[in-house]
Write a structure and sequence with these properties.
elongated, 0% strand, 44 residues, 2 helices, single chain
Amino acid sequence: MKWETNGELAHRDLSELVNRLLDFESESHTNELSRLGTKYEDSE
């Protein structure tokens, strides 16, 4: 995983991490993970 200079996880690594977690988490957690993934995309 690569961290950006601002302390955030690199976009590609964050997307990959969220996608992997979505495969294993319960539905209640997947909603929050999806929100996390789109939060980063919205800030670009």
